[in-house]
Specification:
The chain has 340 residues and is α/β, with parallel strands linked by helices. Strands 3-2-1-4-5 form a 5-stranded mixed sheet, with helices on both faces. A 5-stranded mixed sheet has the order 8-7-6-9-10, sandwiched between helices. Helix 1 runs parallel beside helix 2 and helix 4 runs parallel beside helix 6. It starts with 6 loop residues before the first strand and ends in a 17-residue tail after the last helix.
């Protein structure tokens, strides 16, 4: 096998973004994402609408990825797709499309675990970005997931801590909803937080055993706090929005960093890589940089476009699996609750 010339098409459709990417020997040639604006009106992702939008987007997105990479589809060596976890209807669109295309082109099919892909995005060849050394701790933080994973090799991973209720991205979005902010609220809270006082309003931190997380109690505490304050002063949120956002963000980041500190102590691993949509948050990035100074961590933060759901991360896993001849048959099925 000529390892110098491998082209893989990656397809991602686990939630509400339809994405396709072409990777050539570990370097991304194109990374196309079609976002679905429709969910903003509903304040969250509507599964039925998401799968319908994927059906409309998938052909043009794949076509664009191939065109932008400046290759012919006949040059593809394999097709990698997200098998799970995610929304079943959305996963089915990507899975069926990948299967048909692989069959049509008579090339191998590679199934990818979405959560592994967030972690392995760090192995994309990218100028100015250093790859983590094994073993390392990965913290995957997104709208649907919050996990700390011990990564021993590309495909040897163990979840050592995860949320027992809401994911961290959900905590941001639901707090935003309480404050009357549009969906998704995470980036808006981050923006306000930069100008607010993080110690203005102390919120409780949940007491969860081990390395697991919980965010539902915090959300309830924020709800009751806002309700109480608005009774006293109807303009409370408007007048204090920056301080409220800074305080919420400060609390959430503290919860994450505390568990990370605990994980580095327990495992003795000081190399940390983050991934998932919430890793775009400036507060979390700053807290990790501070961890480098304070605790001598070595932290890896991926390029912004590889943090949210994207197909580049699916393509890199496809490439790594291709090198190991790790393929699946056309009988493969999507799995909404796929584990790492």
């Amino acid at each position: 096998m000529e390892s110098q010339n491998i082209y893989i098409l990656g397809i991602e459709s686990s939630c509400d973004d339809t994405a396709a990417a072409i990777i050539h020997n570990g370097k991304i040639l194109s990374n196309v994402v079609a976002n679905q604006q429709i969910h903003q009106e509903y304040g969250g992702v509507v599964p039925e609408l998401a799968s319908r939008a994927h059906q409309q987007n998938i052909v043009p997105v794949v076509q664009q990825a191939i065109a932008k990479a400046n290759i012919d589809k006949k040059q593809l060596n394999a097709i990698a797709f997200t098998r799970g976890p995610g929304l079943m209807g959305s996963l089915l669109v990507g899975t069926s499309f990948a299967k048909s295309l692989a069959l049509g082109l008579d090339i191998p099919l590679i199934d990818v675990n979405h959560m592994q892909a967030h972690i392995l995005a760090h192995f994309i060849e990218e100028e100015g970005f250093e790859k983590p050394n094994f073993p390392f701790l990965a913290m995957t933080i997104s709208g649907g997931h919050t996990q700390i994973v011990k990564v021993t090799s590309h495909f040897e991973m163990e979840v050592i801590g995860e949320t027992i209720d809401d994911a961290v991205g959900e905590a941001f979005d639901k707090s935003g909803k309480i404050l009357g902010l549009p969906y998704p609220a995470g980036p808006i809270i981050d923006k306000y937080a930069k100008e607010g006082n993080p110690k203005a309003f102390p919120f409780p931190k949940p007491n969860v055993k081990g390395l697991n997380f919980s965010f539902s109690g915090l959300k309830t505490a924020i709800l009751y706090f806002i309700q109480k304050k608005q009774k006293e002063d109807p303009n409370f949120v408007e007048e204090n929005i920056k301080d409220i956002c800074a305080s919420i963000q400060h609390t959430i980041i503290n919860i994450l960093i505390d568990k990370l500190k605990k994980a580095t102590k327990e495992t003795g691993i000081k190399e940390i890589a983050i991934g998932g949509g919430v890793s775009a948050n400036s507060g979390i990035r700053n807290a990790l940089k501070e961890g480098e100074r304070k605790y001598h961590w070595k932290t890896h933060i991926p390029k912004f476009e590889y943090t949210t759901d994207n197909a580049a991360m699916i393509a890199i896993v496809g490439y790594l699996k291709y090198l190991e001849n790790d393929f699946v048959g056309s009988g493969v099925t999507a799995s909404a609750r796929l584990k790492i």
